[in-house]
Specification:
The complex is a heterodimer of chains A (289) and B (308). With 289 residues, chain A is of the alpha/beta class. Chain A is built from seven helices and eleven strands. Chain A is globular and about 65 Å long. Chain B is globular and about 60 Å long. Classes of the chains: A alpha/beta (289), B mainly alpha (308).
């Protein structure tokens, strides 16, 4: 306890010879809900990969749940950025959640078993039902996942990430491709999970507005550097202007929504931002505009 | 008295008909071989359909042609060439279709198509080098289910047992990697290795079965029962059981009809499996009609400029 879920100190990540970002420091404490913001290509997914241990830190220190990245993957619930399931995927939502529980174990679950195996099977089914209840997906968890809407799929995927009672949730753009109502309700769900289960969550997003009511803090990545702090300190004209190095204006609408005007746009070809392999989170374009 | 094998007659007495079919050793062997194939091809095919790798499976079954012609050229049993080419084909497809399932769909099928074209071309070359006519090209394509010997049956059963044992060990992680590769990889499941292992398994199953049932037939048993079962249910266990049941039904019905007819067994097996598949789709469509009018209301609606 007292150990932060995520501790990054003056870290840098290089892919090939290019430095994605450097001098990044951040903390996420137990039970905290933190958003990782930034324009497309600013290196948000790269940061998640570094936290998962898929990319080494070229400088500085990264520690996750008190250990080096990758060492405590069992205690991390990771939700990759993804397209939804194909419509013809003929498995139930609850099967997808169950795979999150024991899908990495070799062998098959025996359909007919007794004794300890049977009670373990019952416990697994109970846990799956419980976590599906937590995310409010009970009504449709037994339908084929491909037939569900994006918001319904996203809830089940969050259940899948939660099913092993992780101490840390890493969610890569879970609000992407959801409509505004669903963005709000999924954000509320993550905030609720952080509070009720004491789970720390780092959620990657490029729009902070659906999250505003639930966030503890934000980390804002731009031009290879990061600023960390409460939303009202980070998403401001002064801070973002300093971060981007060009004049940027933050407007507050009457309903409290934040609008960032004048930030350098990434080049248009860049929408494959969480693509494959070493180009993931392709950096260096955020300052190109 | 059982009817003469040359003129079997169908009566309304089903027990009598079945007894009549089982009178002959070659029919018993055919039924046993067909059942083994139905189980193995069904289960491997279930994963193949789920992974949407039917084109890869088709290409692997095409490896029979270069495999058999290479074997004829080298003067070794056809089975050797068959296994060799299936393994090579599986490896090539695994390499070409990129890391895990991340290669785009069209990219993947283009790669597999290229492998298939090359395989057929190589087979053609071997045939012309061989100079002769490949004597059993017809049995290569359409199989010789009614001519299965005891030794072949035993070999087939051994291959099936091995395939199913490996499948059982790989089971859960393979399923995880098949439907949810990213999360599986993050959980430490060796997605790429499993993908290659599955293709090799698929190749083995295809090679072993098409020795007996023919290239075209194995494919009917690989795809149709699994696709029908998946159309009917999304529960994995029910779906697997249904796949095997449908496969067995296809083989038994097909062989049964063939016995009382003058036309080849392969035709009836393929036809029955096709009819079952169409039926399954019709049933699924009729049941799904009520659900499908729900709107997945997830149009991304972000006011322009609001990017914080």
């Amino acid at each position: 306890m007292g150990e932060p879920a995520i501790a990054v100190d003056a870290a840098a990540v290089r892919i090939g010879r290019r430095t994605i970002w450097s001098g990044v420091s951040m903390r996420v404490q137990e039970g905290e809900f933190v958003a990782l913001l930034g324009a497309n290509g600013s290196g948000k997914s790269t940061l998640l990969k570094a936290l998962l241990g898929a990319l080494p830190a070229a400088a500085g220190q990264i520690s996750v749940l008190g250990r080096p990245p990758g060492a405590s993957s069992g205690a991390i619930g990771y939700l990759p950025q993804r397209r939804s399931f194909a419509q013809e995927t003929r498995l139930r939502g609850s099967d997808i959640v169950r795979l999150g529980l024991d899908g990495d174990r070799w062998g098959l679950p025996l359909p007919f078993s007794w004794g300890r195996t049977a009670s373990r099977g019952r416990a697994a089914r109970r846990r799956v039902a419980e976590v599906i209840e937590t995310v409010g997906a009970t009504a449709y968890a037994d339908r084929p996942i491909g037939e569900l809407s994006g918001g319904e799929q996203q809830r089940l995927l969050i259940a899948q990430a939660l099913v092993r009672r992780p101490e840390l949730l890493l969610l890569d753009e879970p609000l992407d491709s959801l409509d505004l109502a669903n963005q709000g309700s999924v954000a509320a769900l993550v905030g609720e999970i952080c509070r009720s289960e004491g789970v720390a969550a780092l959620l990657v997003a490029h729009d902070v507005n659906p999250l505003l009511a639930y966030l503890d803090r934000v980390v804002y990545l731009a031009r290879g550097h990061a600023v960390e702090g409460p939303v009202e300190e980070v998403v401001t004209t002064a801070t973002l202007t300093r971060l981007y190095g060009v004049p940027v204006e933050v407007l507050r609408a009457s309903d409290g929504r934040l609008v960032v005007v004048g930030q350098p746009e990434p080049p248009a070809h860049h929408h494959d931002r969480h693509g494959h392999g070493p180009h993931a989170g392709d950096p260096g374009h955020a300052d190109a505009g | 008295m059982p009817a003469d094998a040359a003129h079997p007659t169908l009566s309304w007495n089903v027990a009598h008909d079945v007894a009549q079919v089982l009178e002959y050793h070659f029919m018993v062997n055919a039924l046993l071989a067909g059942s083994v194939v139905a189980v193995m091809a069904g289960l491997v095919g279930w994963l193949m359909v789920l992974r949407r790798e039917a084109f890869a499976g088709h290409t692997l079954s095409m490896m029979a042609f270069p495999g058999a012609s290479a074997a004829a050229l080298a003067g070794v049993p056809a089975a050797w060439g068959f296994f060799l080419f299936c393994a090579a084909g599986a490896t090539a497809i695994g390499r070409l279709s990129g890391p895990g399932r991340r290669a785009s769909w069209s990219e993947q099928s283009a790669g597999i198509g290229a492998v298939q074209a090359l395989a057929l071309a190589v087979g053609f070359l071997f045939v012309s080098l061989y100079g002769g006519v490949l004597g059993d090209l017809e049995s290569l394509l359409f199989g010789d289910l009614l001519g299965v010997g005891d030794g072949e049956l035993l070999l087939l059963a051994a291959v099936a047992a091995g395939t199913l044992a490996v499948l059982a060990v790989l089971g859960r992680p393979l399923l995880f990697a098949s439907v949810d590769a990213d999360v599986a990889a993050a959980r430490g499941v060796p997605v790429r290795a499993l993908s290659l292992a599955f293709l090799l398994l698929l190749g083995l199953a295809v090679a072993a079965t098409s020795q007996i049932t023919g290239v075209l037939l194995v494919f009917a048993l690989l795809v149709a029962p699994a696709a029908s079962a998946q159309a009917l249910t999304a529960r994995p266990l029910a779906s697997l059981v249904l796949t095997v049941a449908l496969g067995l039904a296809v083989v038994w019905l097909g062989l049964g009809i063939a016995y009382f007819s003058v036309y080849p067994a392969g035709f009836f097996i393929a036809t029955v499996s096709f009819v079952l598949y169409v039926l399954a789709r019709v049933i699924a469509f009729a049941r799904g009609g009520t659900r499908r009018d729900r709107q997945p209301a997830d149009a991304p609606a972000r006011p322009a400029g609001v990017i914080a």
